[in-house]
């Protein structure tokens, strides 16, 4: 019963519609009605600029981080594998909440930043490495989508070959995450190949483009 409560709570935390709140209350637009229609950091970056996008990205990351840290409230004395499994479940519940938020008519984003926050809570060094990949790719290309894909693909590479994660469930999670991110970004990949993907232009608001 306690674990079920934590899973539901993690989902509710993940459901906090950061992008919707920022876009509506600060910029007067619904981010779900413009651009790609996704209520996430990538669409916010593209439509409202880097300042709004960064705020949304950090907020979405915190959702995954806090959800995982709910495991610290458990009264059970588990081994490391069981704790890792619980953390993964709680983090994924937050990601599901982000994608299908109960507080925003179940219309959310793709969950990339929330996944990063989840990884940050479980393995900080891995998360810092992934953020490094993301920021480096963003600096070089100015494509938020490509940066997200690159960081996601780097995740299982780091887990399997650099950090040598012993937990099989977490290794499988890393591989599945990379595959899922690539699949959910298939439209972005098509636009990248066609040269039609939008780039991050500056740290100024892009309200005029909405």
In brief, what are we looking at here?
The protein is mostly helical. It has helices at 2-14, 18-27, 41-48, 50-69, 80-99, 112-122, 124-141, 144-162, 168-184, 186-194.
Describe this structure in words.
- The chain is mainly α and 210 residues long.
- The protein has helices at residues 2-14, 18-27, 41-48, 50-69, 80-99, 112-122, 124-141, 144-162, 168-184, 186-194.
- The chain has one domain (2-209).
- It starts with a helix and ends in a 16-residue tail after the last helix.
Task: Provide mean pLDDT, rounded.
Answer: 90
| Count of distinct strands | 0
Helix content bin: 55-70%
Radius of gyration: 17 Å
> Low-confidence spans: pLDDT under 50, at least 5 residues?
203-210
Percentage of residues in strands: under 5%
Quaternary structure type: single chain
Alpha-carbon distance between the two ends: 46 Å
| Helix and strand pattern | HHHHHHHHHH
The main sheet comes to: none
Overall structural domain count: 1
> Total number of helical segments?
10
Q: Which class of secondary structure composition applies to the elements?
A: mainly alpha
Which tags fit this structure?
single chain; mainly alpha
Helices and strands, with pairings:
Layout (H helix, E strand, L loop, with lengths): L1 H13 L3 H10 L13 H8 L1 H20 L10 H20 L12 H11 L1 H18 L2 H19 L5 H17 L1 H9 L16
Helix pairs in contact: 1-4, 1-5, 2-4, 3-4, 4-5, 4-6, 5-6, 6-7, 7-8, 8-9
